[in-house]
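Whiteboard transcription, Tuesday session. T.W. wrote the C-alpha coordinates on the left side:
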Protein backbone atom coordinates (compact mmCIF):
# COMPACT_ATOMS: atom_id res chain seq x y z
CA UNK A 1 0.00 0.00 0.00
CA UNK A 2 1.35 3.46 -0.94
CA UNK A 3 1.83 5.71 2.08
CA UNK A 4 0.90 9.41 2.01
CA UNK A 5 4.50 10.70 1.84
CA UNK A 6 5.22 8.54 -1.23
CA UNK A 7 2.00 9.73 -2.86
CA UNK A 8 2.84 13.38 -2.14
CA UNK A 9 6.32 12.87 -3.64
CA UNK A 10 4.84 11.24 -6.76
CA UNK A 11 2.35 14.05 -7.23
CA UNK A 12 5.11 16.62 -6.79
CA UNK A 13 7.27 14.84 -9.36
CA UNK A 14 4.37 14.71 -11.80
CA UNK A 15 3.79 18.44 -11.37
CA UNK A 16 7.46 19.19 -12.00
CA UNK A 17 7.39 17.10 -15.16
CA UNK A 18 4.28 18.90 -16.35
CA UNK A 19 5.87 22.32 -15.71
CA UNK A 20 9.01 21.27 -17.59
CA UNK A 21 6.91 20.04 -20.52
CA UNK A 22 4.90 23.25 -20.53
CA UNK A 23 8.09 25.31 -20.56
CA UNK A 24 9.31 23.39 -23.60
CA UNK A 25 5.99 23.91 -25.41
CA UNK A 26 6.01 27.65 -24.66
CA UNK A 27 9.61 27.94 -25.87
CA UNK A 28 8.52 26.31 -29.11
CA UNK A 29 5.58 28.73 -29.36
CA UNK A 30 7.96 31.68 -28.86
CA UNK A 31 10.24 30.36 -31.61
CA UNK A 32 7.31 29.97 -33.99
CA UNK A 33 6.10 33.53 -33.35
CA UNK A 34 9.58 34.95 -33.86
CA UNK A 35 9.73 33.52 -37.36
CA UNK A 36 7.28 36.24 -38.42
CA UNK A 37 7.64 38.87 -35.65
CA UNK A 38 11.13 40.38 -35.74
CA UNK A 39 13.04 42.22 -33.03
CA UNK A 40 10.24 42.18 -30.45
CA UNK A 41 11.42 39.53 -27.96
CA UNK A 42 10.20 41.48 -24.92
CA UNK A 43 6.81 42.10 -26.54
CA UNK A 44 6.44 38.44 -27.51
CA UNK A 45 7.46 37.27 -24.03
CA UNK A 46 5.10 39.67 -22.28
CA UNK A 47 2.25 38.66 -24.59
CA UNK A 48 2.87 34.96 -23.92
CA UNK A 49 3.11 35.77 -20.20
CA UNK A 50 -0.32 37.40 -20.39
CA UNK A 51 -1.85 34.49 -22.26
CA UNK A 52 -0.36 31.88 -19.93
CA UNK A 53 -1.58 33.84 -16.90
CA UNK A 54 -5.09 33.98 -18.38
CA UNK A 55 -5.23 37.77 -18.56
CA UNK A 56 -5.75 40.54 -21.11
CA UNK A 57 -3.08 42.81 -22.58
CA UNK A 58 -3.03 46.43 -23.75
CA UNK A 59 -0.43 46.99 -26.47
CA UNK A 60 0.73 50.58 -26.83
CA UNK A 61 2.61 51.50 -30.00
CA UNK A 62 2.55 53.55 -33.18
CA UNK A 63 1.09 51.99 -36.35
CA UNK A 64 3.21 49.57 -38.35
CA UNK A 65 4.85 47.64 -35.52
CA UNK A 66 3.14 44.30 -36.31
CA UNK A 67 0.67 44.39 -33.42
CA UNK A 68 -2.13 42.95 -35.57
CA UNK A 69 0.24 40.38 -37.06
CA UNK A 70 1.26 39.36 -33.56
CA UNK A 71 -2.34 38.64 -32.54
CA UNK A 72 -3.04 36.66 -35.72
CA UNK A 73 0.15 34.66 -35.29
CA UNK A 74 -0.63 34.03 -31.63
CA UNK A 75 -4.02 32.61 -32.57
CA UNK A 76 -2.43 30.21 -35.07
CA UNK A 77 0.41 29.07 -32.78
CA UNK A 78 -1.87 28.51 -29.79
CA UNK A 79 -4.62 26.90 -31.86
CA UNK A 80 -7.18 29.54 -30.91
CA UNK A 81 -9.99 31.20 -32.83
CA UNK A 82 -9.16 34.89 -33.24
CA UNK A 83 -11.25 37.84 -34.41
CA UNK A 84 -10.57 41.53 -34.84
CA UNK A 85 -12.68 44.64 -34.39
CA UNK A 86 -11.69 48.12 -35.49
CA UNK A 87 -12.88 50.51 -32.79
CA UNK A 88 -14.45 53.76 -33.97
CA UNK A 89 -16.60 56.39 -32.23
CA UNK A 90 -19.76 55.08 -33.92
CA UNK A 91 -19.13 51.46 -32.90
CA UNK A 92 -22.08 50.27 -30.81
CA UNK A 93 -22.08 47.62 -28.07
CA UNK A 94 -24.20 45.37 -30.29
CA UNK A 95 -21.45 45.51 -32.92
CA UNK A 96 -19.17 43.75 -30.42
CA UNK A 97 -21.34 41.48 -28.31
CA UNK A 98 -24.15 40.78 -30.80
CA UNK A 99 -27.89 41.46 -30.83
CA UNK A 100 -31.29 39.80 -30.91
CA UNK A 101 -33.14 39.90 -34.20
CA UNK A 102 -36.83 39.23 -34.77
CA UNK A 103 -37.53 36.29 -37.04
CA UNK A 104 -40.70 34.74 -38.36
CA UNK A 105 -40.95 30.97 -38.62
CA UNK A 106 -42.73 29.02 -41.36
CA UNK A 107 -45.88 28.76 -39.25
CA UNK A 108 -46.05 32.53 -38.86
CA UNK A 109 -44.81 32.71 -35.28
CA UNK A 110 -42.30 35.38 -34.38
CA UNK A 111 -39.37 34.91 -32.06
CA UNK A 112 -36.06 36.52 -31.20
CA UNK A 113 -32.79 34.89 -32.19
CA UNK A 114 -29.45 35.97 -30.75
CA UNK A 115 -26.77 36.63 -33.33
CA UNK A 116 -23.34 36.46 -31.75
CA UNK A 117 -20.88 39.30 -32.24
CA UNK A 118 -17.11 39.10 -32.72
CA UNK A 119 -16.55 38.99 -28.95
CA UNK A 120 -17.41 35.29 -29.19
CA UNK A 121 -13.83 34.35 -29.99
CA UNK A 122 -10.97 32.91 -27.99
CA UNK A 123 -8.70 35.84 -28.87
CA UNK A 124 -10.31 39.19 -29.55
CA UNK A 125 -8.19 42.00 -30.93
CA UNK A 126 -9.69 45.41 -30.19
CA UNK A 127 -7.75 47.74 -32.47
CA UNK A 128 -7.43 51.33 -31.21
CA UNK A 129 -9.69 50.60 -28.26
CA UNK A 130 -9.61 54.20 -27.05
CA UNK A 131 -11.57 55.27 -30.16
CA UNK A 132 -14.64 53.36 -28.95
CA UNK A 133 -17.26 55.31 -27.02
CA UNK A 134 -17.55 54.89 -23.23
CA UNK A 135 -20.78 52.92 -23.72
CA UNK A 136 -19.04 50.43 -25.99
CA UNK A 137 -16.02 50.25 -23.71
CA UNK A 138 -18.29 49.35 -20.78
CA UNK A 139 -19.80 46.46 -22.77
CA UNK A 140 -16.32 45.16 -23.48
CA UNK A 141 -15.42 45.61 -19.80
CA UNK A 142 -18.12 43.14 -18.74
CA UNK A 143 -16.86 40.61 -21.25
CA UNK A 144 -13.27 41.02 -20.05
CA UNK A 145 -14.09 40.71 -16.36
CA UNK A 146 -16.96 38.21 -16.27
CA UNK A 147 -16.29 36.38 -19.55
CA UNK A 148 -20.02 36.56 -20.24
CA UNK A 149 -22.32 38.97 -22.07
CA UNK A 150 -25.92 39.89 -21.27
CA UNK A 151 -28.43 40.59 -24.03
CA UNK A 152 -32.21 40.78 -23.71
CA UNK A 153 -32.21 39.45 -20.17
CA UNK A 154 -30.14 36.40 -21.10
CA UNK A 155 -26.53 35.70 -20.20
CA UNK A 156 -24.22 33.99 -22.68
CA UNK A 157 -20.87 32.45 -21.81
CA UNK A 158 -17.89 33.41 -23.93
CA UNK A 159 -15.56 30.75 -25.35
CA UNK A 160 -12.77 29.45 -23.14
CA UNK A 161 -10.06 30.54 -23.05
CA UNK A 162 -11.06 34.15 -23.69
CA UNK A 163 -8.35 36.79 -24.14
CA UNK A 164 -8.57 40.43 -25.19
CA UNK A 165 -5.50 41.97 -26.79
CA UNK A 166 -6.25 45.66 -27.31
CA UNK A 167 -4.08 48.19 -29.11
CA UNK A 168 -3.72 51.91 -28.64
CA UNK A 169 -1.83 54.57 -30.59
CA UNK A 170 0.10 56.83 -28.16
CA UNK A 171 0.44 59.69 -30.65
CA UNK A 172 -2.94 60.43 -32.22
CA UNK A 173 -5.36 61.43 -29.47
CA UNK A 174 -8.01 63.42 -31.37
CA UNK A 175 -11.40 61.71 -31.39
CA UNK A 176 -10.46 59.32 -28.60
CA UNK A 177 -12.05 58.40 -25.29
CA UNK A 178 -9.43 57.63 -22.63
CA UNK A 179 -10.05 54.28 -20.99
CA UNK A 180 -11.44 54.62 -17.45
CA UNK A 181 -9.35 53.38 -14.56
CA UNK A 182 -11.71 50.46 -13.95
CA UNK A 183 -11.16 49.14 -17.46
CA UNK A 184 -7.41 49.75 -17.46
CA UNK A 185 -7.20 47.70 -14.26
CA UNK A 186 -8.66 44.70 -16.11
CA UNK A 187 -5.58 44.45 -18.33
CA UNK A 188 -2.96 42.19 -16.80
CA UNK A 189 -0.10 44.00 -18.58
CA UNK A 190 0.41 47.19 -20.54
CA UNK A 191 2.92 46.20 -23.21
CA UNK A 192 4.87 49.05 -24.80
CA UNK A 193 5.77 48.14 -28.40
CA UNK A 194 8.87 49.93 -29.66
CA UNK A 195 10.78 49.98 -32.93
CA UNK A 196 12.97 46.98 -33.83
CA UNK A 197 16.74 47.42 -33.91
CA UNK A 198 18.75 47.71 -37.13
CA UNK A 199 19.48 44.00 -37.60
CA UNK A 200 15.92 42.93 -36.79
CA UNK A 201 14.45 45.48 -39.18
CA UNK A 202 16.83 44.29 -41.89
CA UNK A 203 15.71 40.68 -41.43
CA UNK A 204 12.08 41.80 -41.45
CA UNK A 205 12.64 43.78 -44.65
CA UNK A 206 14.09 40.80 -46.48
CA UNK A 207 11.57 38.30 -45.11
CA UNK A 208 8.39 40.28 -45.78
CA UNK A 209 9.08 41.68 -49.26
CA UNK A 210 10.10 38.45 -50.98
CA UNK A 211 8.03 35.81 -52.70
CA UNK A 212 8.18 33.31 -49.83
CA UNK A 213 6.36 34.07 -46.61
CA UNK A 214 7.09 32.22 -43.39
CA UNK A 215 4.31 30.00 -42.04
CA UNK A 216 3.74 29.12 -38.41
CA UNK A 217 2.44 25.85 -37.03
CA UNK A 218 0.13 25.24 -34.04
CA UNK A 219 1.92 24.31 -30.83
CA UNK A 220 -0.99 24.23 -28.38
CA UNK A 221 -4.77 23.97 -28.49
CA UNK A 222 -7.50 25.73 -26.52
CA UNK A 223 -8.05 22.87 -24.02
CA UNK A 224 -4.29 22.49 -23.54
CA UNK A 225 -3.94 26.21 -22.82
CA UNK A 226 -6.70 26.00 -20.20
CA UNK A 227 -4.84 23.14 -18.51
CA UNK A 228 -1.61 25.15 -18.69
CA UNK A 229 -3.30 28.10 -16.99
CA UNK A 230 -4.49 25.80 -14.20
CA UNK A 231 -1.02 24.30 -13.83
CA UNK A 232 0.49 27.77 -13.56
CA UNK A 233 -1.39 28.38 -10.32
CA UNK A 234 0.28 25.35 -8.75
CA UNK A 235 3.77 26.80 -9.13
CA UNK A 236 5.22 27.64 -5.70
CA UNK A 237 6.25 31.21 -4.95
CA UNK A 238 8.97 31.92 -2.40
CA UNK A 239 8.45 34.22 0.56
CA UNK A 240 11.01 36.72 -0.76
CA UNK A 241 9.06 37.02 -4.03
CA UNK A 242 5.75 37.49 -2.21
CA UNK A 243 7.24 40.20 -0.01
CA UNK A 244 8.78 41.94 -3.03
CA UNK A 245 5.40 41.99 -4.78
CA UNK A 246 3.62 43.36 -1.73
CA UNK A 247 6.36 45.87 -0.97
CA UNK A 248 6.50 47.32 -4.48
CA UNK A 249 2.74 47.54 -4.97
CA UNK A 250 2.00 48.97 -1.53
CA UNK A 251 4.82 51.51 -1.81
CA UNK A 252 3.05 52.91 -4.88
CA UNK A 253 -0.01 53.93 -2.84
CA UNK A 254 -0.28 57.24 -1.04
CA UNK A 255 -1.91 55.57 1.95
CA UNK A 256 0.85 53.04 2.62
CA UNK A 257 4.02 54.44 1.02
CA UNK A 258 7.15 55.71 2.67
CA UNK A 259 8.67 56.90 -0.61
CA UNK A 260 8.85 60.69 -0.82
CA UNK A 261 8.59 60.72 -4.63
CA UNK A 262 5.28 58.89 -4.43
CA UNK A 263 3.90 61.29 -1.82
CA UNK A 264 4.83 64.28 -3.98
CA UNK A 265 4.00 63.06 -7.46
CA UNK A 266 1.37 60.27 -7.45
CA UNK A 267 -2.35 61.03 -7.67
CA UNK A 268 -3.48 57.42 -7.10
CA UNK A 269 -1.69 54.12 -6.92
CA UNK A 270 -2.21 50.45 -7.77
CA UNK A 271 -4.90 48.38 -6.08
CA UNK A 272 -4.85 44.74 -4.95
CA UNK A 273 -5.48 43.55 -8.51
CA UNK A 274 -1.94 44.73 -9.32
CA UNK A 275 -0.53 42.33 -6.71
CA UNK A 276 -2.60 39.49 -8.15
CA UNK A 277 -1.49 40.31 -11.69
CA UNK A 278 2.17 40.45 -10.67
CA UNK A 279 1.92 37.12 -8.84
CA UNK A 280 0.49 35.36 -11.91
CA UNK A 281 2.85 37.13 -14.31
CA UNK A 282 6.05 36.15 -12.49
CA UNK A 283 4.93 32.51 -12.45
CA UNK A 284 4.32 32.64 -16.20
CA UNK A 285 7.69 34.28 -16.84
CA UNK A 286 9.44 31.55 -14.86
CA UNK A 287 7.78 28.89 -17.04
CA UNK A 288 8.79 30.74 -20.22
CA UNK A 289 12.39 30.74 -19.00
CA UNK A 290 12.28 27.04 -18.12
CA UNK A 291 12.32 27.51 -14.35
CA UNK A 292 10.17 25.86 -11.70
CA UNK A 293 9.59 28.95 -9.54
CA UNK A 294 9.82 32.74 -9.96
CA UNK A 295 12.52 34.99 -8.54
CA UNK A 296 12.72 38.58 -7.34
CA UNK A 297 14.31 39.40 -10.72
CA UNK A 298 11.04 38.35 -12.37
CA UNK A 299 9.19 40.80 -10.13
CA UNK A 300 11.56 43.63 -11.12
CA UNK A 301 11.19 42.77 -14.80
CA UNK A 302 7.38 42.62 -14.83
CA UNK A 303 6.52 45.37 -12.33
CA UNK A 304 6.63 48.17 -14.96
CA UNK A 305 4.10 46.57 -17.40
CA UNK A 306 1.89 45.62 -14.44
CA UNK A 307 1.98 49.04 -12.75
CA UNK A 308 2.25 51.66 -15.49
CA UNK A 309 -1.50 51.60 -16.32
CA UNK A 310 -2.55 51.30 -12.68
CA UNK A 311 -1.01 54.55 -11.45
CA UNK A 312 -1.46 58.22 -12.28
CA UNK A 313 0.68 61.31 -11.74
CA UNK A 314 -0.55 64.53 -10.20
CA UNK A 315 -0.17 68.03 -11.61
CA UNK A 316 3.05 68.66 -9.71
CA UNK A 317 4.74 65.68 -11.37
CA UNK A 318 3.73 66.84 -14.84
CA UNK A 319 4.90 70.35 -14.09
CA UNK A 320 8.30 69.07 -12.94
CA UNK A 321 8.68 66.69 -15.90
CA UNK A 322 8.53 63.55 -13.77
CA UNK A 323 7.40 60.46 -15.67
CA UNK A 324 5.56 57.41 -14.40
CA UNK A 325 8.50 55.23 -15.34
CA UNK A 326 10.70 57.39 -13.09
CA UNK A 327 8.38 56.68 -10.17
CA UNK A 328 8.22 52.94 -10.89
CA UNK A 329 11.99 52.67 -11.13
CA UNK A 330 12.25 54.41 -7.76
CA UNK A 331 9.89 51.78 -6.29
CA UNK A 332 12.10 49.01 -7.65
CA UNK A 333 15.36 50.54 -6.45
CA UNK A 334 15.03 49.08 -2.94
CA UNK A 335 14.91 45.54 -4.36
CA UNK A 336 17.81 45.67 -6.81
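and on the right, the sequence the group agreed on:
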Amino acid sequence: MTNSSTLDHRLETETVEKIDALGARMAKARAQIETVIFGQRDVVDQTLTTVLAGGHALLIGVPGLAKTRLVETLGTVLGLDDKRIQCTPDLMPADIIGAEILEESDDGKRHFRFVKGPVFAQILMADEINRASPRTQSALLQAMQERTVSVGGHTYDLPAPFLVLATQNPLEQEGTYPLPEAQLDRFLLQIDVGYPDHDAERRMLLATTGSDEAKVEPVLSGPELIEAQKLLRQIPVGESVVEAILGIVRSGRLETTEVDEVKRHVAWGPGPRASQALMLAVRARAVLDGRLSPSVEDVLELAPPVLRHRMALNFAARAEGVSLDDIIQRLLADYR
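Someone added at the bottom: Confidence is low (pLDDT under 50) at residues 1-8.
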